[in-house]
UniProtKB/TrEMBL annotation:
This is Uncharacterized protein. Residues 15-46 are annotated as: Disordered. InterPro entries: DUF6459. The lineage of its organism: Bacteria, Bacillati, Actinomycetota, Actinomycetes, Mycobacteriales. Pfam families: DUF6459 (PF20060).
Amino acid sequence: MNQLTGYVYLQKPAPTRAVANDRKHTTPATPTPSGDSLAPVPSVADTPEVAPRPIVGRLLTFWLEALAGRRSLKTLRRAPFTPMALADLERTIAREKGNLTASGIKSLHIQPGAGRRTRFCASVAFGARVRAVVGTLSWRRLDPRIRKPQRTHAWHVEVIQVI
């Protein structure tokens, strides 16, 4: 198969040449078949492929505790939940009126997403029943006024839904 000129073929990202004075700020770039670099892509530290399992489990546990009434919604407003996710949770609490009391997460599966998003699916015990809980997380920049100095980004819950 002949390669067409002007097209970038799928290859592992290669780092750009480091500048002598500033080696720590280099980012990987997409190489062309000739070895030249095109536009830089976000660094690996800025764009993780998948949300770490402990983080997703912790955020899901917070959400389930709020759904069961064991945690107030005020505490979730300080956690990395989008306003849309909190509004959906308030509607779910009002609709179910205490009928959903989760006793524990049975399994958790995390699916890599496109770009800065990832999806998850969990099996959660609600009394004698086991139901699926699905959701989406996004990798977002933290507010510089309230963020911790060592972190610039964090996973935020966009949507969680009980099926």
